[in-house]
Amino acid sequence: MAAGMNKQEMKQAKKDAKALLKKPFYKKVWFWVLAIIVVIIIANLGGEETPKNEPAATGSTEKATPAKEKAEEKVFGIGEVVKVGDVEFTVNSTSTAKNVGGEYGTNAQGTYLLLDVTVKNVGNEAITTDTSFFKLLSGEKTYDADGSASIYANEDTNFFLEQVNPDLSANGVVAFDVTDEVINNPELMVQVSTGFFGTEKGTIKVAK
Predict the structure, then answer these.
(1) Strand partners, 142
(2) What does 154-191 look like in DSSP terms, one character per residue?
(3) Is 26's pLDDT higher than 80?
(4) What's the whole-model pTM score?
């Protein structure tokens, strides 16, 4: 028995010790110290997420697929029918001359390239034939038809400025006053359209 303590005091001390041992664990200091340590560890681990194996973003290094190039305009030949809008054009043949209309006609500054053509109206309204329907193309150069020479070349047909009703055709000659070099161009073309402001066009190769 401890000195200074009587039997009754010893009994009470043992009782107090047992009560202390039975104290709820959550009221004990060591529990809260351990809880704080666990919270700190969890907080540290939660702040460092393992990076996912995501594919790295790649720049757009590949060239965008270019839009399909516009289909190259078909080039027709002599004798072939070219439909432009509501008109069908045909170059039947070509020839050359230094003069059209004879003695009272007109002479070329160079040489007349004469195109025998047929124009058919396949629309629903009448059209009026005109030299503006035709352009001669030689390389990057464009030549207009010679209006006066074309009139002389069509004295018997009155081809130009003639009204053509639907489903009917007109045949005549278109004259171009050009150099022999142009006439001999192996890539010589004639462009046909429905008038000066025609948005639709067709191309016919008329080289020899």
Answers:
(1) 137
(2) TTTT--TT-EE-TT-EEEEEEEEEE-HHHHT-TT-EEE
(3) no
(4) 0.64
For the four alpha carbons of 115, 118, 122 and 127, in that order, the dihedral sign comes to positive
Distance from C-alpha of 148 to C-alpha of 155, rounded to nearest angstrom: 11
- Tell me the pLDDT tens digit for each residue of 112-127: 999 999 999 999 999 9
CA distance 189 to 199: 18
pLDDT at 65: 46
CA dihedral 18, 23, 28, 34 (to 10 degrees): 100
Using DSSP, state whether 24 is helix, strand or coil.
coil
Give the mean pLDDT of the chain. 81
Long-range CB contacts (< 8 A, 24+ apart) of 163-168?
Answer: 163/126, 163/127, 163/128, 164/119, 164/120, 164/121, 164/126, 164/127, 164/128, 164/129, 165/121, 165/126, 166/121, 166/122, 166/123, 166/124, 166/125, 166/126, 167/121, 167/122, 168/120, 168/121
- The rounded distance, in Å, linking the Cα atoms of 81 and 89 is 6
Task: Answer for the pair 145, 176: CB distance below 8 angstroms, yes or no.
Answer: yes
Instruction: Look up tokens 């030299």; give the residue.
Output: 131
